[in-house]
Amino acid sequence: MRLSRYFLPVLKETPSEAQIVSHRLMLRAGMIKQASAGIYSWLPLGLKVLQNIERIVHEEQAKAGHIPVLMPTLQSADLWRESGRYDDYGDEMLRLSDRHGRDMLYGPTNEEQITDIFRSHINSYKDLPLTLYQIQWKFRDEVRPRFGVMRGREFLMKDGYNFDLTKEDALHAYNRHLVAYLRTYERMGLQAIPMRADGGPVGGDYTHEFLVLAETGESEVFYDSAVTELSFGDREIDFDNVEQCASVLEEFTSRYARTDETHDEALFNEVPEERRATARGIEVGQIFYFGTKYSESMGATVVNADQKHVPVHMGSHGIGVSRLLGAIIEASHDDKGIIWPEGVTPFHVGIVNLKQGDEAADAACEALYKSVSALGLEPLYDDRKERAGGKFATMDLIGLPWRITVGPRGLKNGVVELTSRRTGESEELTPELAAARLAEIYAQH
Ligand code: P5A
Fold first, then answer.
1. Is 188 within 8 Å of 53 (Cβ atoms)?
2. Average pLDDT in the 182-193 region?
3. Residue of 210, 220, 324 whose CA lies nearest to 280
4. What's residue 414's pLDDT?
5. I need a labelling partner for 17 at 20 to 30 A (CA). Which of 6, 40, 257, 354 fits?
6. 154 Cβ inside 6 Å of ligand 1
7. Which architecture, in CATH terms, is 347-442?
8. Cα-to-centroid distance, 56 and ligand 1 (Å)
9. Residue ranges, CATH 3.30.930.10, the chain
10. Cβ distance 401 to 337 under 8 Å?
11. Is the dihedral of CA 80, 86, 92, 97 positive or negative?
12. Where exactly does CATH 3.40.50.800 map onto the chain?
């Protein structure tokens, strides 16, 4: 993409309504525009990151054997009356009625709707296990939407639902989700720690939230600091292997780590004092096992091997897809702007032409643009007639992890400069070697 033809409405001033750094930077970098309280339009740069996050979520769900579907945002109130949640959900649910006076709602989550799909099509235990998921917009009429996409009213969620014959099978699905989530967050450059939590309106008492530690997080958390040393890394995992998945859960959840809802001071005090930590965290996901809560009330049963009708065991599993943008920025920025991890960056490299209009500089930038694109990478070429300082400031603000600077002086020696946004370190290389370095870097992501 050439910046002269792109739509990147960066702001010079810091917007006064934004209280936390991720919100400020998303507005300043022209990623989002507030439409009304807690509701945002996604501008091109923001949309690219959102789609990268979606892609990683889809890829990791596919590895776990989970199947994508797409359900509507508007749901019938009758389904929610069956589960009893229509009245329970309270003011967070946006309720509306259609021209025939039928009660509808904008889905805050989809347990009822997916259970309805399941009961309409599946009757036999032979069709289990089954996990369906979607990435779809949700609406929760939060009393105090704030911090931009962090706590929106309309937000994008990955929501998955498992259907199993037995509690043991459903717990394996739970563990599979935990593993898939650990991989998902790490690919986004995040450490998200699973912590025992509360079921809330979804239900069930077996649930973990995934928290990214950050001062601006809305949850208070208590943990054994040893959990911060764990990482999933690039180990191989067989998602059908019950013991393997269970041992990952064991490894990542056996130490004390809880949100304030489930915090237990006596248990916490058993952690050696030097490892007892309290912090704030951003909840980027939550997994639940709630057994037969929905299948019993909504009649989602299968015939088992003894020809008996039994309600299926279920769980649901959510990732805050749009919230993740805020969480990643909170975890990765400096005073100049965002620093995108390679896995989610909107463009792989920024090309800065120090002297637009100079024949050699223009030609070298064009050639680099072509060679980088030919590698399957997406460059953002700042081809505007602007001062170098302004171009650098824009690149730093929007946070591309790599920048290639091209100027007449370097070109006389046959070199351009490759700079890391994270470390600020630069290397002088021929344009060919700079492109090859990028290919090497991105081969790992
Ligand atoms: C699990 C999937 C559920 O709703 N039902 C389907 C279950 N879980 S949850 O924890 O309530 O939500 C899942 C994740 O969505 C994100 N989230 C939000 N993101 C932005 N703004 C909000 N107002 C908001 N509310 C929830 C969180 O990351 C949460 O973990």
1. yes
2. 98
3. 220
4. 97
5. 6
6. no
7. 3-Layer(aba) Sandwich (3.40)
8. 18
9. 3-337
10. no
11. positive
12. 347-442
Pick the closest to residue 295 from 314, 280, 276 (CA basis).
314
283 Cβ below 6 A of ligand 1: yes
Q: Whose CA is nearest to atom 4 of ligand 1?
A: 109
**CA 346 to ligand 1 center in whole angstroms:** 24
Residue minimizing CA distance to atom 22 of ligand 1: 151
What type of residue is 25? L
For ligand 1, is residue 211 a contact (CB within 6 Å)?
no
Distance, CA 285 to ligand 1 centroid (Å)? 7
Q: Determine the residue of 141, 157, 163 to mutate for testing ligand 1's pocket, defined as the one with the most ligand atoms within 8 A of the Cβ atom.
A: 157
pLDDT tens by residue, 344-356: 999 999 999 999 9
Q: What is the pLDDT of residue 204?
A: 79
Please tell me whether residue 195 adopts helix, strand or coil conformation. Answer: strand
Give backbone dihedrals phi and psi of 443, rounded to 5 degrees, phi first.
-60, -25
Q: How many CB atoms lie within 10 A of CB 57?
A: 24
Model confidence at 100: pLDDT above 90: yes
Q: Is the CB of 109 under 6 A from ligand 1?
A: yes
Which residue, judged by its Cα, is nearest atom 14 of ligand 1?
320
CATH assignment, 3-337? 3.30.930.10
Q: Is 318 in the pocket of ligand 1 (CB under 6 A)?
A: yes
